[in-house]
Design goal:
The chain has 303 residues and is mostly helical. The protein has one domain (10-25, 40-297). 71% of the residues lie in helices and 1% in strands. It contains 14 helices and 2 strands. Strands 1-2 form a two-stranded antiparallel ribbon. Strand 1 and strand 2 (11-12) form a beta hairpin. Helix 1 (13-41) packs parallel to helix 13 (241-264), helix 1 packs antiparallel against helix 14 (270-302) and helix 5 crosses helix 6.
């Protein structure tokens, strides 16, 4: 068995099984005690709200980084124009998703009120978001190794494709389940009577009402993108298995902290958090394995 078959997303397969096992155990526990856990853990705080609003920034930095992977790989293959388009696409995805999920929080910093404040304030907030995603491209341009162009392209494509697919699947499942959020239940006279487990689905009840979009957690879909960090580490000029593991540990700690935040801030139940993580992690693992396997096959054919 080759080294490629011993790793998933650039870390040992045992790491994959550990993440899946933790998520499954969390889903089982949550399925039995979701409401009880929230009753004990829920406590909205300012620092928690800040982390909830802006923590996704670190995950979204992966999009422009992936774009730079594609740019450097395609440029090495004599396709700089295609690489440039995908580089801009990665940067735009980061800006677009950030504006969609937390752009309102950025505009709040400038006391922007739609219909009352100057539209230039909104433009300014958008430009700030856009500028915040320039540095990952600059750094990646300096540290990424383009000697294996196929691997670089596979990593970049996997991060972009899996990220968009995971977000789309999450949004679809939210409509399928239409599960009430805990913070919505707290506004009712009898929260327990309106509580529903994740499998008690009422398709399309949610519509545009965010109060019925608890399952699965969209923020955990974003946070779990960090598990692709070892793949970026694996295409650095100075790479090592140790650095990949360090990136995996950092990603794991970030995901756990974000998961705790989602429950603590009354936005989600434990099962929501674990499902959101598992869905994204599964999609990233499957797509990256397929893309990297094809990249390896291309290398063998050339040899």
């Amino acid at each position: 068995m080759t080294e490629k078959h011993k790793t998933i997303m650039a870390v040992p397969v045992v790491c994959f099984y550990c993440v899946v096992a933790v998520c499954v155990v969390g889903i089982i526990i949550g399925s039995l005690f979701d409401l009880t856990i929230n009753e004990k853990m829920a406590d909205v705080t300012k620092i928690g709200a800040t982390f909830a609003a802006f923590g996704c920034y670190f995950s979204y930095c992966l999009y422009p980084a992936a774009g730079m992977c594609l740019y450097k790989g395609l440029k090495k293959k004599g396709l700089p124009a295609a690489g440039t388009v995908l580089l801009i696409t990665g940067w735009f995805l980061a800006v677009y998703y950030t504006n969609s999920y937390s752009g309102g929080k950025v505009r709040d910093l400038f006391h922007y009120t739609a219909g009352e404040s100057s539209p230039w304030i909104s433009v300014l907030s958008w430009l700030i978001i856009a500028c915040l995603y320039v540095w990952p491209m600059i750094v990646c341009h300096k540290v990424l190794d383009d000697r294996d162009a196929d691997k670089l392209i596979a990593v970049g494509a996997a991060i972009l494709v899996a990220g968009v697919l995971a977000d789309s699947v999450n949004l679809w499942l939210k409509q399928v389940a239409s599960r009430p959020r805990y913070k919505y239940l707290l506004t009712l006279d009898d929260p327990v009577s309106e509580y529903r487990n994740w499998w008690q689905m009422v398709p399309n009840l949610a519509g545009s009402n965010d109060s019925f979009k608890s399952w699965p957690s969209g923020n955990m879909t974003i946070a779990a993108m960090m598990f692709s960090l070892p793949m970026l580490s694996d295409v650095l000029k100075a790479r090592s298995a140790k650095k990949n593991m360090i990136c995996f540990i950092i990603a794991s700690c970030f995901v756990v902290l974000y998961g705790y935040n989602r429950i603590h801030m009354t936005n989600h139940f434990l099962s929501d958090v674990c499902f959101g993580t598992l869905i994204t992690y599964g999609i990233y693992s499957g797509i990256s394995s397929a893309f990297l396997r094809d990249a390896g096959w291309s290398d063998k054919r050339r040899n």
